[in-house]
């Protein structure tokens, strides 16, 4: 896997109604990093992801993936390097079978069918659902749909995996399975979520956004223990770090760290 650096330089974006959603934002994502982007509703997280994917276009600032600056001419190349899993799997699954959904992207690359099949089965095996390849996506559980959506992105062989609220609507077991799966991936990962315990389990670094601006960028353990910072952003310390309401003791993993 070829790893590419992701650079955001002075990015600004306003919606047609004048709402400034992203304000002069700059950061780098280094190859192989797993970075969480957190903030309250309306902070600008989803807008940022859509800008990175070229779904929205900023008039100011730059997005650079590897050596390529994102623009209309390079968009197709950029999307070969970045793969996004949307918050709602139903936004990505639209074919009659899981196999065809996962094969959709590679087929659009005009690959030979044997190469398509190889990519599809590898992706399905990576997410643990090869047995579902002939199932209709609409008949899957929430966790199975999430895995199928991730497989549809992995089959495109992206270098950077972008995920918007990946644990949304998952039951506890499906959530844990997803966390374990993400931790096995070698991709550079950029994850937005309100599930701060999941972010803590999967990301070493966190970028905190408030009103379209970055107000903190640092290690997950430091930022997620900063109750004052999180409170000003409408967030709370993850439950796994909070003191037990019965005995008053904290998680040993984070005591005196």
Description:
The mean pLDDT is 91. Strand 4 and strand 5 form a beta hairpin. Helix 3 (98-108) packs across helix 4, helix 3 (98-108) runs parallel beside helix 5 (142-154) and helix 4 (113-126) packs across helix 5. The chain has a 6-stranded mixed β-sheet, with helices on both faces. Strands 2-1-4-5 form a 4-stranded antiparallel β-sheet, covered by helices on one side. By secondary structure, the chain is of the alpha/beta class. The chain has helices spanning 45-52, 75-81, 98-108, 113-126, 142-154, 172-184, 196-202, 220-223, 227-232, and strands at 6-14, 20-29, 34-38, 60-65, 68-69, 82-85, 160-164, 188-192, 205-210, 213-219. Helix content is 32%, strand content 23%.
Order of helices and strands: EEEHEEHEHHHEHEHEEHH
> Helix share of residues?
25-40%
Class by SSE composition: alpha/beta
Strands of the widest sheet, in order across it, are 6-7-8-3-9-10
Number of helices: 9
Question: What gap, in angstroms, lies between the N and C termini?
Answer: 34 Å
Radius of gyration: 19 Å
Instruction: Report the mean per-residue pLDDT as an integer.
Output: 91
Ranges where pLDDT stays below 50 over 5 or more residues in a row are none
The biggest sheet, with number of strands, parallel, antiparallel or mixed sense and barrel status, is: 6 strands, mixed
Total count of strands? 10
Overall spatial form:
globular
Beta-strand fraction estimate: 15-25%
């Amino acid at each position: 896997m070829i790893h590419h650096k992701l650079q955001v330089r002075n990015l600004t974006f306003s919606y047609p109604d004048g709402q400034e959603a992203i304000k002069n934002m700059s950061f780098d994502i280094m190859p192989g990093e797993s970075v969480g982007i957190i903030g309250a509703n309306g902070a600008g997280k989803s807008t940022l992801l859509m800008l990175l994917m070229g779904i929205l276009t900023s008039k100011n600032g730059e997005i650079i993936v590897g050596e390529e600056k994102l623009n209309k001419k390079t968009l197709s190349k950029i999307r070969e390097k970045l793969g996004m899993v949307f918050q709602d799997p139903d936004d990505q699954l639209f074919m009659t079978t899981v196999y065809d959904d996962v094969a959709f992207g590679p087929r659009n690359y005009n690959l030979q069918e044997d190469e398509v099949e190889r990519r599809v089965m590898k992706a399905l095996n990576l997410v643990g659902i090869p047995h579902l390849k002939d199932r209709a996506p609409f008949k899957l559980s929430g966790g199975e749909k999430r895995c199928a959506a991730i497989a549809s992105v992995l089959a495109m062989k992206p270098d950077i995996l972008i995920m918007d609220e990946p644990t949304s609507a998952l039951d506890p077991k499906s959530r844990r399975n997803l966390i374990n799966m993400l931790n096995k991936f070698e991709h550079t990962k950029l994850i937005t979520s309100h599930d701060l315990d999941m972010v803590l389990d999967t990301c070493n670094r966190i970028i905190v956004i408030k009103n379209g601006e970055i107000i903190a960028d640092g290690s997950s353990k430091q930022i997620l223990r900063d109750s004052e910072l999180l409170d000003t952003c409408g967030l709370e310390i993850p439950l796994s770090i909070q003191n037990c309401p019965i005995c008053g003791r904290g998680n040993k993993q984070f005591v005196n760290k």
